[in-house]
């Protein structure tokens, strides 16, 4: 197993928006998705806006996730965008509605993970277990190319120590880590968290399911909702050709002159995504990250909007199992690792190789092929059923 983990630059905010307010927040969602709309005000004599959280070469988001699910609208964006774009909209709502929108009080850091030699279920466990055992709350987002972990900014030192205890070698500035082989240790070092962490993975799973049962969290499935994981085609910044396969990061830097955001994106793809967002989809999760083409996890019925602008397995049938976590605090630990670990264990790793996980602001979704999702439900339902 060869895994590389890097801290992305900047601090990020998680935003929860109730589905009932979707239309009120569609415009700010689009303003964030199309970042250079933020500069229009200055051209009209309005205040100059500095665009934070964008890459220097292509002026694209370093990281952005927009997810519309049957439970909520969730946005992970640079904290400056939360402050400049979303907070004014919330302030303009009636007080009772404004209270239903939640912005994380603490900033988060993004860990970008590139892993070879492990199936998807193995990656979830390998990446989340050392942090969960150190008592660090996380959010986990699987995409077409990479995995991303959100950790509280205040926990950075504990994250570094937890990764180090599992054999990840840090760079000099502790922003990049490499692990060429799995480490046998399972109890990370680090400053003790406020609540004593579980001593092992078995106890972590037990605590996670005890908490979910106590808060009456039951798995939800809409079998009519089928998802596909795809990547968008993207315009090469060097040749203007359309490509879909991952490239070395060096190929993403403009040659000769500074190109703008609109030069580097596939405008066809972005038009399709906007069409999907405007339709208020049942499920659409978009992840933009500086080293990857756009990644989409979407309701299969939306494919007709995209034409040939997507690549990936559009014939697969993946069913999401939703866990509504609105009753749990953001600081809760071990949920991703506990749920994914128990499924990987009971379904056997080889059979659950396509398991992926999406954390949104107030929910989680385990995504599996149709046949495996039924088995997963059979495992989860008794574990989450409260005994009277």
Automatic annotation (TrEMBL):
Pfam families with a match to the protein in the record: ACT_7
> Where does the source fall among the domains of life?
Eukaryota
Q: Pro residues compositional bias: what residue ranges?
A: 190-200
Specify where the region named Disordered lies, as residue ranges. 180-200
The processes (GO biological process) annotated in the record are: amino acid metabolic process; carboxylic acid biosynthetic process
Limits of the CASTOR ACT domain: 104-163
- What name goes with this protein? CASTOR ACT domain-containing protein
UniProt cross-references to Gene3D superfamilies, sorted A to Z: VC0802-like
